[in-house]
Amino acid sequence: MTRFLAQTEAAARPAPDRRRGLRQILAEDFFYAPGATVWTLVLVVLLGLAAWTLFDWAVLNAVFGPTGTLDASQACRAEGAEGACWAVIGDKVRLILFGLYPFDLQWRPGLACLLMIALYALSVQKALWRPALGVIWALVLAAVLVLMRGGVAGLAPVGDDQWGGLPVTLILSTFGLGLAFPVAIALALARQQRRFPMLQAASVGLIEFARAVPLVVVLFMASVMMPLFLPESWQVSKLLRVLIAFTLFGAAYLAEVIRGGLQAIPSGQYEAASALSLTYAQTMRDVILPQALRIVIPGIVNVFIGFFKATAIVVVVGIFDLMTAAKRAVADPLWQGFGIEVYLFAGLIYFVFCFSLSRFSARLERDLARDRS
Amino acid sequence: MTQPDTPLLSIRGLNKWFGAYHALRDVDLQVARGERIVVCGPSGSGKSTLIRCINRIEGFEEGSITLDGLGTAAKGRAATREVEEIRRQVGMVFQHFNLFPHMSVLENCILAPMRSLRESRATAEGRARELLARVRIADQADKYPGQLSGGQQQRVAIARALCMRPRLMLFDEPTSALDPEMVQEVLDTMVTLAEDGMTMICVTHEMGFARQVADRVVFMDQGQILEVAPPGEFFDHPRHDRSREFLGRILAH
């Protein structure tokens, strides 16, 4: 073997410029071969046609006005009106958003919705993840309840059988998941520990029950069967019963996600905490859970999104959520046949919430990956 | 009660099983105040298990381990409290550091004093900074463990254990997971600690360290203590056949 000895020191140079211009991107990714060129052109034509058709229906030929229910309905049914009838949204927007809540008091559910949206916006700021956030949640949820129910501070009382639309959807998901989260942590810890076998068995039983039975079945049981078995004085409103069913389901699913995070923590972390004489509660609160929850944030967000959408299922037991409100809006004889527009509108609202959550989750994963350096 | 003539740590008739495997067999060992013990032996000989039993990270079936009289209660609340007290008085440094990755260096050091000793943040922080300076890492206090080298992390782990003001320090192969160029900085820290009079039990393969600081070397094989001797005698004139065999193997290269 010949001997090598470096004669010079290799100085560090700046990395080459890896950015590409539009022309380069097109040439390298879209028109790099005859076959690619053909497919690019075919897809551009197809997408263009689809976009044009949609634009033609939703904008060019659409009926937006006039105001006045009867006029608008007639305009939509007029000869040659082949586009979307957005007038139905204008006419029914209050019903879709707030259901049968007393018309003059609808500023209250409106404000409640804004409060809950602001709460989400706060909660997704990583810098604000500290115990005080729990207090803020409790305060906002209490304020939402006061606004919706009334009966205090000079607000006229409104029974929850009159609530409807977007606030019910938001309340079911926010209260449901807000309550489910601490329950889920308790369930996951109870399932993981070995010291109290009965507690563990109870946790496993509850989790496996919720995972094995369809949500719809539990909702029917909560709304139809429970009143038959419970004494009169124990009766609670249907909305509350459905909310409890949601909470238990959400907690069971979240518990399994959180348990996955707990299992990902190396045993050395438990040993170090024990060696430092931390108690079980201190170990969990300060050492294990902060790490475990961080690992499973994508899974938690996934459950949140799933449950936000799953609230639409309460339509089958007659809770007046956003989906039920949309159905009710097109039941009006004046507007029969314009379901597509109404459902598109409701779908858009669901989309905005779920897509925001999904984006938030993606951003968070990026941030946390960077933190771990 | 602190009586200078009784041993600080007393292990008597210790037996432990992992399932059917007999991991520790009739182990007896007394450690005096200020004494430095190095435990060595082939892998799987029970060295780590032995020191993990001392602070009850591992349980055991037979025998007793007492720290200045603590550790006699068998079961229930009294036993739980005794274990907590023992852990407060015994610091431990692990092979893989086991720092808490989501906390800064400083937070790692003050967590247990604040939670377990109920110290104020200011008190805990003051001593943490002092000890971080002593392991020559004061400038890294606000960094996270992931940003430090292995040697730095292990020195933080030592400082973290010292923050509890332990009377006894356990080291479980503290340099085995380190890159070779970082071993010395950790050993230097341990030597300083020994010179300051800390009672220490170190499981280690660093024979240079053993010669330099150990009062006694304990040789273990197959869960049993086979030889206990001052380092000079142990390394130069091992008595037990398996000690000789072991030293032959590790000193051969």
TrEMBL record, chain A:
Keywords: Cell membrane, Membrane, Transmembrane, Transmembrane helix, Transport. InterPro entries: AA_ABC_transptr_permease_3TM, ArtM/GltK/GlnP/TcyL/YhdX-like, MetI-like, MetI-like_sf. It comes from the Bacteria. Pfam families: BPD_transp_1. One of its GO terms (biological process) is amino acid transport. The keyword 4Fe-4S does not apply. Gene3D superfamilies: MetI-like. It is a multi-pass membrane protein. Its main location: membrane. Belongs to the binding-protein-dependent transport system permease family. HisMQ subfamily. GO terms for cellular component: ATP-binding cassette (ABC) transporter complex. One of its GO terms (molecular function) is transmembrane transporter activity. It comes from Pararhodobacter aggregans. PANTHER family: INNER MEMBRANE AMINO-ACID ABC TRANSPORTER PERMEASE PROTEIN YHDY, MEMBRANE COMPONENT OF AMINO ACID ABC TRANSPORTER. This is Amino acid ABC transporter permease. The chain crosses the membrane at residues 30-55, 105-122, 134-156, 168-189, 209-230, 236-255, 295-320, 340-362. Residues 166-361 form the ABC transmembrane type-1 domain. It is found in: Cell inner membrane; Cell membrane.
UniProtKB/TrEMBL annotation, chain B:
Signal peptide: none annotated. InterPro entries: AAA+_ATPase (IPR003593), ABC_ATPase_HisP-typ (IPR030679), ABC_transporter-like_ATP-bd (IPR003439), ABC_transporter-like_CS (IPR017871), MetN_ABC_transporter-like (IPR050086), P-loop_NTPase (IPR027417). GO terms for molecular function: ABC-type amino acid transporter activity; ATP binding; ATP hydrolysis activity. Keywords: ATP-binding, Nucleotide-binding, Transport. Residues 9-247 form the ABC transporter domain. PROSITE patterns: ABC_TRANSPORTER_1, ABC_TRANSPORTER_2. Belongs to the ABC transporter superfamily. This is Glutamine ABC transporter ATP-binding protein. It comes from Pararhodobacter aggregans. The gene is glnQ.
